[in-house]
Amino acid sequence: MPNWCNNSLTLSHDNSKKIQRLIRELQRGDAAEVFQCLRPRPEHEGNSWNCEHWGTKWDASDCQWEKEGENGVYINFETAWSPPIALYDFLASKGWTVHAYYYEIGEQFAGKYTNEDGDECYGFVLTTKSIKELPDDVVEAMGDLDDYLDEDDELDDGDEDDELDDGDDDEA
Question: Is 77 helix (H, G, I), strand (E, B) or coil?
């Protein structure tokens, strides 16, 4: 059984027909094969092709999506073990604008992908200190992590100082 990697992806393309084809596929709900729609796997190929050309073993699962403007779509989905970086590279080379975030709590990595910067992957441990060392936009994309942290180590909202300092250095 795989560890599931959480992904959020915004795709856009100047050719609205490409977006419409993707939306038609997404409208299939649980039967949607998003990666297959974007980069079809050749007949008689299997999971090794998927790993090499999509960057993950299986197609996207548990997809939620919404249209973004005239030529875009936002998709939140899960993948087995890793994000589909190879698919993002392919899409960027074909004129798509790709902006994605991903994280996998079990293997403790998170990152983002853009056409301009490619893949930026970061390792972390499940502590407040480690999470706060990640880029702010990556942490924001990860959502509420308090369920994964020990109660004493939950992320604060930044409104309170870790230690109170009243300026009186004479007290212990």
Answer: strand
As a whole number, mean pLDDT of residues 5-13 equals 98
Helix (H, G, I), strand (E, B) or coil at 1: coil
59: Cβ–Cβ under 8 A, 6 or more apart, which residues? 33, 34, 35, 36, 50
- Cross-strand partners of 6: 78, 103
SS3 82: coil
Higher pLDDT, 46 or 118: 118
Domain that holds residue 11: 4-147
Is-above-0.90 flag for pTM?
no
What 3-state DSSP class applies to 98? strand
Q: How far apart are CA 142 and CA 76, in angstroms?
A: 12
**In-domain check, residue 161:** no
Residue 130 burial by CB count (10 A; 0-12/13-18/19+): exposed, middle or buried?
Answer: middle
CATH number at 96 reads 3.30.70.1270
> How many domains does one find in the chain?
1
- Residue 127 corresponds to which tokens in the numbers above? 């502590």
151: CB partners within 8 A, 6+ apart: none
Contacts of 130 (CB under 8 A, 6+ apart): 124
